């Protein structure tokens, strides 16, 4: 088995698990699914620099071969942004639960046009 | 150069005045009106200095490049047409400011009023002196917005809000059409420069795009100038304070459409389609508006419909495409501005003094307010076109032109219809004066209160009426040179000889005029009977039609949205995944080629395979146990650890550090959220649904895994990595290439990303900080502790350990930060580590204890972080380098030795602060709300 095989299959398994969980009805499961998909995406972006052992992109006079640093820089910020996104989604689902009393991703399952109370322009005027 | 400075001052003065007034919002009204009046007067002075060159045929102009790639230059040009309109805008503007100073009641928000008024003045002035059609469009839109603000000035009134919305919808919609038309015009003419366009008349008219372009531009002009069938917004705009009506909705803004027709005459006018369309629309509007005005009862409504009618007359005159008709239009623009503004102000005075604008309740006011009566009657007489006033001359000129154009092949049709319109005009003008000032008071109460206001108020309308009279008595002296020059500018040819006078002998125009006056007198005499007839006719209400059109459009859009956009997020997500998978499959099938490439593989060792097994198992467990939330979280963190291990092994130490720190923070966050989320057993999906989702999931996994495999087994294409590796030390001053990329090569990206992170943190704050209101608050209060808590809330061991750990962790954070430029570490990682150090305090010692000892505010951290990063970039600009260029050098100190200072370090400090602030804000808000809920629950229990 090669590292390439391990990484590619790990990405595939993470994506499959992530998609399945993202399609569940409960917000917490969807958050878990998004987390799995994020791992897969970050790994995939990182892998676009190809897999290299023991050649970190730390410049040294005596070293001539390095791995590609650019995907790493992109993935580093992506990991932090992933945290921001996860945190936001978690809080959003929490607030949605507090507002609707349900942790279903579709809220309390009322069609959107009956929900927002926008009957007509005139009705909005007192 | 002097000309350029004058033009720029002229264009910017109103905007500066608006800004100054807005900044001095709390000052007394005298300051507001003083600034507005001074700006208008100063503008008039600038304009006066431009009079000689502008009217002499040598239009002063100045150009500054703005967006050259779009052909958008900031070009200002004052030709006679622009000069005349600028004179009206500034002159009437000054009078309106004087009038409004006394007109507005005590307690009105004069700061907002005069700031909006000056904003409008600047926008309107911009339209008439713009020398680039795109620039003209910018100002055009700005007048719609300023008009919206001014119509809706009395925000508490429903009719003001509705009127403002309607005006914005109609004129704004027309503005969109105009943008299309102007862009087409510019493309046909090959330039957006006005002078260049005006020189291309023949080419534009011959273009196959001419009809489309003409139609779009005409829609813009007709909506702005309230031409039938777009007229209906103007009467509803009368919900604005009267000075606004006098200024925007009679003298200036509604004339923008007329102005544009005149401005573009050399390229648009003269074709069959132009003449027929513009003349007919103007004619219909003129007759329609005049007829309706005769039967309105609200003084301002009468004036609004009369404005519609008069605008129709101007549009019709321009539609004739004859020089003499253009001359009549130019003269009438002057006349109309003078008498109509005076009439609006008079109506405002009457309302102010009597408390009503209903003409049926008023009458005989000449006795109570003789000065106002004199002013308004003379102005109304000019509107009726009676000699010896200005209105008479322009009406004569118009009637004289009518037989020259055969409408529908009938030479007599136009004179007859125009005379009909003129008859109605005479009638409503006479009615305005007669029913208001002559006869007996119809109701005692308004009459008893009525008296002339102070001269401060009637000075402005008096001056305008005096002008209306002088335009009739001394037209050659007052108006002829201006009208001649402007007419030349409209038609784009030499200024014509102008003969203006009251008496031209007995001719057709005079006969038609006499008929109109006699007919108008008869209509007034028979007004009561006609009114009864009119009211029985029950004509359709344009406002109701507008509202119902809007409502049905709204309903249809909603239906279409629901039909295409199922309201279920779950189903939308399913569709997105399915479509994406199908697209990838389609691409894979049509692309061909082999899956596995030729790049030599890296053989994996046993620990790597073991970690892989762990990851697969943890993923499976997460999916299968996703309903046991705590366990699922533990499995997820196992996956995160394996991923960081993978980064560490595969030559990415920075990523490994970041991933492991983020992992800790994420798990803490989810734990806190889990505490508040419902713990009842979730719904179990049906087997069919699970099978379907599993199929999609497996297809997605296989495809992405396959793509990853195909990519990993091939050699990469040419990379820009070599540049980064070669320049990291030499150009960026650091050996950790990843960090140098983040803070130097791609620092702009990083800046964007920390801003996104900061916004996410603030979004979380907004979502949670408002959760103590409404149903969210009720649910928080009803929250119960459902899990057994440790009897010891803050175990001594943990507290003691956390206090020792804090300085150690902080030291690690600082170390990681300082070495980040050369070794794995940096602002992102250090911030996460420091955040963990603080979060451990929250966990161990509790929210209140830690929060009270926290030396910083998270909002400040985010703000200062972004500002620090930006300041680093701007500092580079101040030193003459591009934004975010970094600088570094080596120094040495005794004891410490040689060390490096780099501006990238400062940038990284900004990154550090923002990330720390965002992470802390998210977690701290979450624990805060949990704390509140727990406290509420505790209060209920005890």
Quickly list its features.
A: 126 residues; mainly alpha; 4 helices; B: 942 residues; two-stranded antiparallel ribbon; two-stranded antiparallel sheet; 4 strands
Shape of chain A: elongated
How many E-type strands of chain A?
0
**Biggest beta sheet summary of chain A:** none
H/E topology pattern of chain A: HHHH
Tell me the distance between the termini of chain A.
72 Å
Task: Name the helicity range of chain A.
Answer: 55-70%
Topology:
The complex is a heterodimer of chains A (126) and B (942).
Chain A: H1 3-22, H2 27-47, H3 69-100, H4 112-115
Chain B: H1 2-23, H2 29-55, E1 61-67, E2 72-77, H3 80-103, H4 110-129, H5 133-151, H6 158-189, H7 194-198, H8 201-206, H9 210-224, H10 233-236, H11 242-251, H12 255-263, H13 265-268, H14 272-294, H15 299-319, H16 323-354, H17 365-368, H18 370-384, H19 390-401, H20 413-437, H21 444-449, H22 455-473, H23 475-478, H24 480-491, H25 508-525, H26 527-537, H27 542-564, H28 569-591, H29 606-624, H30 629-649, H31 653-676, H32 687-712, H33 721-732, H34 737-745, H35 747-769, H36 774-781, H37 796-819, H38 827-845, H39 847-852, H40 858-878, E3 888-893, E4 897-902, H41 903-941
Helix pairs in contact in B: 1-2, 1-4, 2-3, 2-4, 3-4, 3-11, 3-16, 3-22, 3-24, 4-5, 5-6, 6-9, 9-12, 11-16, 12-15, 14-15, 14-20, 15-16, 15-20, 16-18, 16-19, 16-22, 16-24, 18-20, 18-22, 19-22, 19-25, 20-25, 28-32, 29-30, 30-31, 31-38, 31-41, 33-34, 34-35, 35-40, 35-41, 37-38, 38-41, 40-41
